[in-house]
Amino acid sequence: MAMMNISDILETIAMIEEEHLDIRTITMGISLLDCCDSDIKKSCDKVYDKITRKAEKLVATGEQIEKEYGIPIINKRISVTPIAMVSACSGGNPVEYAKALERAAQTVGVNFIGGYSALVHKGFAAGDEALIRSIPEALAVTEHICSSVNIGSTKAGINMDAVALMGQTVVEAAKATADKGCIGPAKLVVFCNAPEDNPFMAGAFHGAGEPDCVINVGVSGPGVVSTALKKIPDGNLTDVADVVKKTAFKITRVGQLVAREASDRLGVPFGIVDLSLAPTPAVGDSVAHILEEMGLEQCGCHGTTAALALLNDAVKKGGIMASSHVGGLSGAFIPVTEDAGMIDAARSGALNLERLEAMTAVCSVGLDMINIPGDTPAEVIAAIIADEAAIGMVNSKTTAVRVIPAIGKKVGDELDFGGLLGGGPVMDVNMISPAKFISRGGRIPAPLQSLKN
């Protein structure tokens, strides 16, 4: 038994030092419902005070755990109650809340605060539309704020009025941050079936059903999975699934350890471990390369969706055995600009928007971090959102869209964000107009499978 323990320890060290295993994020979820006030200035002050009080030691604690265990913890983040709910009580310009969140982020030293958000899958409540219309300005005047809007769900259907508005909002966010490389839409996600406990940006928010304060951890290890598969070059696909499951189990155990330690030290309940193979632009840290290790010549060729389905399922099966509280998105992410293999495939033409849409039916999120031409009409972006929402709604899964209109750029040009957001080519978009369909508005009704009670 002692030898097995030593072997496990050595294997984990190798995963960290050679295979890019890391804790992608420790995210503290904070409820702001008790910060509501009819006076917007008082409400913003309460928001700032609560966040800085609750998260005062978040970054230092993460750094301490990282040092003691030798496990890289890349990001320390905060998610908050959807700000539309808070601003509904005060009225006024929601951007004031964005500025308060930005001050809090700078004070406590986190990478991002998520939750400049609205949940409008069944319609607009007080505060929702005002917040959505303020998103471009909010993202332009802040650096650490992330925004998300949930426009559909399996239970409610798809709010097509919100879809149309989000198409316009994405365009306006790109224009508002054109002088900053169009970074605004890179921090804006449009969801169907958004999870309330997601620790990953830009889609993190603290759901109304969550505790007052909670710790969620997001783990990532594409490099670990890819390396494990190299050891079975002649294995069949059942062997591949088994290796991925066993590897996901080990990765999740590391996340569970960090989550428990952070929870205990901060005196905050442990929420979930999100086991998502979230790639980076670094060589050896790519989901696309895992698919290619399975036998695809390049990600995007025929067989890509099947390989991704196998990977996503095996990751979930392995992770669920390692922790009683696996949540968030948990699976495989396919953000184009954040994945070295995806970037290469997009540049070569092996990967296009249609193939990516097919892949989203079996991955854990959706069309993510895709650069599109800067002159893409708002109604085309809205239709892209509607297509993804339909996949999520009908399949009872989370889907999302994060596309970046590259102002002044055309297909084949490059747009670079730096850091984890990476960069990549502007991809071709079908410009045949869906304007009449989008302009009809109303709601796409919930599918039959919503009736599960």
Q: Give me the Rg, rounded.
A: 21 Å
Counted by DSSP, the helix tally is 15
What gross morphology would you assign? globular
Gap between N and C termini: 48 Å
CATH class assignment of the largest domain: Alpha Beta
Q: What proportion of the residues form beta strands (DSSP E)?
A: 15-25%
Q: What pattern of helices and strands is seen along the backbone?
A: HEHHEHHEHEEHEEHHEHHEHHEHEEEHE
Largest sheet: 12 strands, mixed
User: What's the structural domain tally?
Assistant: 2
- Give the helix level as a range of percent: 40-55%
**Unreliable runs:** none
In the CATH hierarchy, the third-tier topology of the largest domain is known as Anaerobic Ribonucleotide-triphosphate Reductase Large Chain
Strand segment count = 14
CATH architecture of the largest domain: Alpha-Beta Barrel
- Label the structural class: alpha/beta
Mean pLDDT: 91
Structure commentary:
With 453 residues, the chain is an alpha/beta fold. The chain folds into two domains: 166 residues, Alpha-Beta Barrel (Anaerobic Ribonucleotide-triphosphate Reductase Large Chain); 228 residues, Anaerobic Ribonucleotide-triphosphate Reductase Large Chain, CATH 3.20.70. The protein contains 15 helices and 14 strands. Strands 1, 2, 3, 4, 5, 6, 7, 8, 9, 10, 11 and 14 form a twelve-stranded mixed sheet that branches. A two-stranded antiparallel ribbon has the order 12-13. Helix 14 links the parallel strand 10 and strand 11. Helix 11 packs parallel to helix 13. The chain is globular.
